[in-house]
TrEMBL record:
Residues 177-227 form the tRNA nucleotidyltransferase/poly(A) polymerase RNA and SrmB- binding domain. Its cofactor is Mg(2+). This is Poly(A) polymerase. It comes from Aestuariispira insulae. Keywords: Magnesium, Metal-binding, Nucleotide-binding, Nucleotidyltransferase, RNA-binding, Transferase, tRNA processing.
Length: 409
């Protein structure tokens, strides 16, 4: 396992040989405990960051001072980053920026962490320290705040979204009533979060095996009403039903895709203009915004493979966009022709129009804008024919058009 690799050992040993204590903390401990694949490896130590840096350099391990002020140094061994952070305690907080001081008290460091299952630490031998019953909570799927839920949310409202994210990935059974009540009362403070942080949490939440129960809780706690700077985001039971059907389909046709899931959730509630507005407000990347609103523009409406309208849409969306549309179509409508669309997209791939300006010059057409127009004419014909004509057929078509010297439309 990851904690026994020579690289990990070297990093841990260099800290303990330097007179410090080093333990794994956060998500990697939780996931190791549950036998899940780990994300990143976080290490906490009582040594100050300058000392950590010095020890790593002496041991010949590459290190980057990623956040010296916050006590973080990143060691890199065999391309694997280890984020090493000096134990901290909160001094004061205004709900957005925690002011921290270094400490050598492991319990103080654990107390600042959000959930009991995230407050575990583990030494190099695999021995876990658990101050808040986090081992049992992890195993039974209880997402519980360290300390008072309301207070912890007042310190940092991002924890509200983290709560639902962790519930989606690790929750079992009914959620903690105290936590839900606290989330409900603190949801009004969500607008102060930077949209980029909302985006990260939302996409991580949507990547869970089944995010629907958590989304349902969020919806009834009023989270979505507060989330978007572009106005309330609405979805209802219908959206959740659609999402459940999409998830069932993904199990057959793979893969789980957060953006597609998000679009599915809002399929009934948003038109193209809304989608663009919300996608931007949620700080989706440009590519994500494009995909999200492309899906919600509901392309292929009533078009099936074989229609010339269909080929025109397909030329624009390509196979990925067609499969997105078909997966959503299958989730929200009667199956109809959507399986044909997926089969078509899988067989066809990306259509490539290979005719070039050279081909026109070879035919002796005078260079200039007329060439572009002729090529576009041939391309439209080729799309209309379902991308079937090959290069020589397209050259032949171009020759015909040129010799006929037909007027351009
Ligand atoms: P992932 O698998 O998504 O990386 P993670 O638990 O490692 O899950 P991170 O966001 O990487 O989550 O944070 C690492 C650890 O830092 C958490 O396990 C938690 O202990 C602590 N932490 C992160 N964000 C907060 C926060 N907003 N408030 C309190 N503790 C936090
Ligand atoms: Mg992590």
């Amino acid at each position: 396992p990851w904690m026994a690799t020579p690289e990990t050992r070297a990093v841990m040993d260099c800290l303990s040989n330097g007179g410090g204590e080093a333990r794994f903390v956060g998500g990697c401990v939780r996931d190791a405990l549950l036998g899940r694949a780990i994300g990143d490896i976080d290490i906490a130590t009582n040594l100050p960051p300058e000392k950590v840096q010095q020890l790593l350099e002496l041991a010949g391990i590459r290190c980057v001072p990623t956040g010296l002020k916050h006590g973080t140094v990143t060691a890199i061994a065999s391309h694997i980053p280890y984020e090493i952070t000096t134990l901290r305690r909160d001094v004061e907080t205004d709900g957005r920026h925690a002011v921290v001081a270094f400490t050598d008290d492991w319990k103080e460091d654990a107390s600042r962490r959000d959930f009991t299952m995230n407050a575990l630490s583990m030494d190099g031998e695999g021995l876990i320290t658990d101050f808040f019953n986090g081992v049992e909570d992890a195993k039974t799927g209880h997402i519980r705040f360290v300390g008072n839920a309301k207070t912890r949310l007042e310190e940092d409202v991002l924890r509200l979204l983290r709560y639902f994210r962790f519930y989606a990935h690790y929750g079992k059974g009914a959620p903690d009533a105290e936590a839900i009540a606290a989330c409900q009362s603190m949801a009004v403070h969500l607008p102060r979060l930077a949209a980029e942080r909302v985006r990260v949490e939302l996409l991580k939440l949507l990547a869970a095996d089944d995010p629907a129960p958590s989304l349902r809780l969020m919806y009834s706690a009023g989270v979505f009403e507060m989330l978007s700077a572009a106005g309330a985001i609405h979805f209802d039971e219908t959206g959740l039903d659609h999402l459940n059907r999409l998830i069932a389909l993904e199990k057959e046709r793979g893969p789980a895709d957060p953006i597609r899931r998000l679009a599915c959730l809002f399929y009934d509630a948003m038109d193209f203009a809304d989608a663009k507005k919300h996608a931007r407000a949620l700080r989706l990347s440009n590519a994500e915004q494009h995909r999200f609103s492309e899906i919600l523009s509901k392309p292929f409406n009533g078009q099936q493979p074989g229609d010339s309208d269909f080929f025109l849409t397909y030329f624009r969306t390509g196979p990925e966009g067609a499969i997105d549309a078909a997966m959503i179509g299958l989730a929200v409508e009667a199956p109809g022709h959507w399986h044909d669309v997926i089969d078509y997209a899988e067989q066809t791939g990306l259509p490539r129009f290979e005719l070039r300006g050279r081909d026109a010059q070879d035919l002796g057409l005078p260079p200039g804008p007329a060439i572009g127009a002729r090529l576009a004419q041939v391309r439209d014909w080729w799309i209309h024919e379902g991308f079937r004509p090959d290069l020589s057929a397209c050259q032949e078509k171009l020759r015909q058009l040129a010799t006929d010297n037909r007027e351009l439309p």
